[in-house]
Amino acid sequence: MTSFRFPRPGEEALVMGVINLSAESFYEDSRCETPEQALQVAERMIAEGADVLDIGAESSRPGSVPLSEQEELNRLLPIVKKLAESVNIPISVDTYKPAVAHEVLQAGANIINDITGLQKFPDMAKTIARFQAGAILMHMQGTPQTMQDNPQYVDLLTEISAFLNQSIAIAVSAGIDPEKIAIDPGIGFGKTDSHNLLILKNLSRLKELGKPVLLGISRKSLIGNILNLPVEERLEGSLSAAVFGVMQGASIIRTHDVQATQRAVKVAESIMKEEG
To answer: Which CATH number is 201's domain given?
Structure first.
């Protein structure tokens, strides 16, 4: 298993390249149907500067339908096995199902990216700990089927922080290495555009939880709604949000556009580090 840890405060942000195995994924250019195609995309992303790859088989876009465990594994396993044999950077798998996590970790994955923050299935945290793997803990209000119906909060940032703090406690109590835990406020997961903008504006508050923050904003509807552009034309807006996120303390940027994001983040970090 590839050894890794998430960035500590002050270290350079990681860029996470997205590879989707679902035909429902909202951005067509990120979809891969075969292990060979996924390997080709992975090799391109690594050449472009990806630090981590994130593989997902079940779409979590609003209104999406869950896959069975077997169907999810049928999509994931051949590609995870192929990548684990072929690439030398950590592989993250986007799943909330413990049985799926067990199989992909056994096949060579290093991180589980759980959109339910370990709070849907009690066995998930123990499964991750058993493999000494990493965990990305995301906040979501509701489920992908219902999350955008009418999301409401009394105190958005306090509620997200409390949820993620609980997820961290679950992870630590199960034995997951504290340096292999990251948190994600879940842009677009049970949030209005106003909620998403407020999260971005106050992203630095999440650093109070003591864990690296992942920002997943790439080509999402928030960008499209601001610019009135389709998903294919949201690169510049995504880069703007990614740079702002890094300036607010994000440690991992999850993106469909590795090269452009890596370059934008590098320039932003160079400006931030300059003294005088």
So the answer is: 3.20.20.20
**Quick one: tokens of 192?**
């209005």
What are the residue numbers of the active site? Answer: 220, 254
Structural contact between residues 246 and 254, judged by C-beta atoms closer than 8 angstroms: no
Domain limits at 134?
A: 14-269
81 bridge partner residues? none
Q: Where are the beta strands (DSSP E) in the chain?
A: 14-20, 52-56, 91-94, 111-114, 134-138, 181-184, 214-216, 252-255
| Residue 183 placed within a domain | yes
Q: Nearest to residue 139, comparing CAs of 124, 127, 123, 156?
A: 156
Across the range 128-147, mean pLDDT stands at 86
Looking at every residue in the chain, the average pLDDT score rounds to 92
Does residue 275 belong to any structural domain of this protein? no
Asked if residue 217 belongs to a domain, the reply is: yes
